[in-house]
Design brief:
- The structure is a single chain.
- The protein is an alpha/beta fold.
- Helix 3 runs antiparallel to helix 4.
- The longest helix has 19 residues.
- It is globular.
- 27% of the residues are buried.
Amino acid sequence: MPRAIPRERYVYVLHGIVKGEPLEAARQKFTRMKMEATEQRNGVLLYISPADHKAAIWGDSGIHDATRKDFWNEVLEEMLSFFREGRIVDGICLGVGRIGELIKAQYPILENDKNELSDDVILEE
C-alpha cells in the first residue's frame, strides 16, 4: 500500500530534563543521528522533553528553506500549549501531523521513493 506522507522525520523523547537550550540539544542530536544524510536534505527532528514541558524542532536545510519563516515556531508553540495542559501525546501528534503535511506538500512521494530515515520514535533511557 502506498504511503500518503513521506516519512523523513524522527520523534526523539528525552527521559529527564533537557540540559541547556532545547533547540541546541535538537541540533546536536540531529547531527549525531546523521539525519542530514537524506538526498533532499528534508529530515526533521522533533526533540521532546516531557518532564519539563520543553521541545524543539530542527529541520535540515532543504526543508527549512522550503517553508515560511515562522512555521517551525508556530508548530512548536501549538505543541507547547498542549504540553502546558498536560496533554503531551496530543502535542506530539499535532507536531508530527503538521510536519508530515509540510513534507507531503514540499516533497511529493515519487514512484521510486524510499524511506531514508527510520520511522521509530526514539525514547532515551
